[in-house]
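dumping this here before i forget
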Amino acid sequence: MAAKSTDSLKRILMGRIGAAHGIKGEVRIASHTEDPLAIASYGPFETDRPGLTVSITRARLAKNVVIASLEGIFDRNAAERLNGVSLFVSRERLDAPDEDEFYHADLIGLEARLEDGSVLGVVTAVSNFGADDLLDVRLRETGKSVYLPFTRAVVPQIELGKGYLIAVPPEGWLEETPRDPEEESEDQ
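structure:
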């Protein structure tokens, strides 16, 4: 099993700041909480910028993003400088997930095994591009990555304590869905 980084065990990604909104320093936040507005109750947030912490002082929902005012940010220029900043909380501050629920950080580093027990690869990320969650699996044999839908049909079993999950890729999926950017550009 691949080792999980200490950092991923300590911090959970709660959201990511996007573009500035308006001229008064508000920002758009892509929230990763079940209720998008709940993100406002988790701060202050650690970030991926050394020394920067962020606190949300006010939040409202606008379509599929949270529009938020941040402590100490009062103009568009300051808000624009925060574009792309990831917002984290320490794992200890969160409740334990319910049965059959997982933090994405729990899945990263798990071996992805086929039903026969052979190792397919390692989960390197969990992504969502607007539909369902996808597991990014780096294949053991080729080192290339593929996305697997994170559904019960494709991932019927997760053994966190044992460090693996069972994957049942749809027929032909591994051959037809390359994720390696170099391979994709060669095909064009």
